[in-house]
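The pair is listed for reference:
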Amino acid sequence: LEKMTDLVAVWEVALSDGVHKIEFEHGTTSGKRVVYVDGKEEIRKEWMFKLVGKETFTVGVSKTKATINIDAVSGFAYEYTLEINGKSLKKYMENRSKTTNTWVLSLGGTDYRVVLEKDTMDVWCNGQKMETAGEFVEDGTETHFSVGGHSCCIKAVSSGKRKEGIIHTLIVDDREIPEAVE
């Protein structure tokens, strides 16, 4: 593998199936464009006459749409922006923090990243969609699953405040896990 000499941008995108690294090479003399997702080449274009434009590809298990926009700023300077599902990365991540909860924990020396998609109540752990069992309990719902032989439960309880909505808590082996900030 030749050295990535034209590497101009690197982004980290947190999706339900994990955090993905997107790297972009742009040869401003040759017009070369190369997109890597998690180290794997997704797009390679040599000798592009037009130096500005966009490259669209997918990321992760759910094939999330991603677009790199290449814009000329001034002279020979370029700006590279990443859009996820048609939104700027910043807007996408802000919106994602409203629609998902993420917990990072270590069990028996193994690190786990658990993600709850609030709209579907799907639970993901280290890139795998988990088998879950949901049940109604006195004060809300519980979604049960297991990770590495440990029993896990996501409790959903109303905050009692309209603005806050529902509070989701991950409990592993009767221990509450603090939510991660991504």
Notes: Helices lie at 89-99.
